[in-house]
Amino acid sequence: MALLGKDQITAADDRKWEDVPVPEWGGTVRLLGMSGTERNAYQSSLVVLGPDGKPSRMNMADQLAKLVAKCLVGEDFERLFTDKEVKALGAKNGAVLERLGQVAQRLSGLRKEDVEDAEGKSEPTPNDDSSSD
């Protein structure tokens, strides 16, 4: 495989998406895996910092709705719910949010097994240009 440059990396369409039937809502929704920036913002929103600036506790309020809101998109792949609209989404059926949240986690690489798989596939590649023998 060829070594990629910056332009090739930024041009790559690497985000996964999936259409998920939601009979409770009368149709299908589209979930798009989060970008790295969105994923970091989501994870940061779950941590409450103490007065010393260190994590003091987890903020699990509307965590499923936050996750689903970051991933729920329309046909144009634009988010349907902003961060300010999470409460409205959180008022929906918890079982539906859980089901959608599981898909969103998988698409965004947030499940424990996704992290473990990624770690197992990241073995160093030998470098033929190495000066050490």
TrEMBL record:
Bias (Basic and acidic residues): 110-122
InterPro entries: TAC_Gp13-like_sf (IPR038556)
Region (Disordered), start-end ranges: 108-133
Biased composition, class Polar residues, residue ranges: 124-133
Protein's recorded name: Tail assembly chaperone
